[in-house]
């Protein structure tokens, strides 16, 4: 029932804004919204639309007009049609598209500014600003954590998939120190064996068995005490690194964490950090790493946003929708400050901007997020 109400509200919103007549002299801020209102990601599109409505309510200005259009899912023809319709309605700035692969289409619309929710590229490219939680911002936060904890031998783990080349290039450009890259197969049947090799698990297991046999032969009080301690262990000997950065998420991340537990990597001595984390509480419900670090958005603001969204619409929002919420706030801030938006240079703001995702700023034609560091502790997310 709730889902049907959301769909109904979404289409009412679409219908109202579709009939707007463009008048550039009426003092209104027209903002386009490109979202997948059809196809496999239809639910995400509707969630983005409702998030934008929530932002409108909070801003409280009647001078903002949202013009939503269906961008489809990886459909260039539909995307271009949607952009042209939005421009014809008088909008010079558009929230979207979602995916980095769509950016090649945007060069055709030089007079239009796009605020994309993509996290792949923090650079301001021509007429596109990305405000997604960038890879660079996450790794920079983790770098600061490793320096603070005096970690000097880091393994960077990521899967062999379609993002492999992108991550390769980003890691090289970030000029990290004292690290090794380890790429793994996403297939769980292969993954465990690969992590065994990384952690030298077989040798450490043999070390334990040899030591136990040796102590059993001595059979004195001191040896019995040590033997009792060893009985609770799976391996003996440390791994050849003091920290791990995992660039993965979802089920694949959980498979990695499970493999690290299985191969007896001690998360009390080895710092384990991950990127692309949105406070997934499923981590607490499985036999995974207990001390996990990750950079993310402000958890208090994130929870407040989720609560407000749920109260308004009766369902939980998709995590990424908080970016659309901030995007509209950013656009309104720039528009109000400059009495309009004439070019992308209007967004080169010197001061830091505080949004729902946290604090971000524009430097050297790049968008930087100041992310907070969190860790899992006693089945809770704790700011570190």
Characteristics of this structure?
384 residues; alpha/beta; Rossmann fold; 2 domains; 11 helices; 15 strands
What do these coordinates show?
It is a single chain. The chain has a seven-stranded mixed sheet, with helices on both faces. Helix 2 (42-59) runs parallel beside helix 11. It has two domains: 2-133 and 299-370, Response regulator (Rossmann fold); 135-296 and 373-383, Rossmann fold, CATH 3.40.50. The mean pLDDT is 86. It is elongated, with a radius of gyration of 25 Å. Helix 9 links the parallel strand 8 and strand 9. It is α/β, with parallel strands linked by helices. It is 41% helix and 18% strand. The chain contains eleven helices and 15 strands.
List the helices and strands and how they pair.
Elements: H1 2-18, E1 29-35, H2 42-59, E2 64-70, H3 76-88, E3 93-95, E4 113-116, E5 128-130, H4 135-148, E6 154-159, H5 164-174, E7 179-184, H6 188-198, H7 201-218, H8 221-230, E8 243-246, H9 250-262, E9 271-274, E10 292-296, H10 299-313, H11 321-338, E11 353-354, E12 359-363, E13 366-370, E14 372-377, E15 380-383
Parallel strand pairs: 1-2, 1-3, 3-4, 4-5, 6-7, 6-8, 8-9, 9-10
Antiparallel strand pairs: 10-14, 11-12, 12-13, 14-15
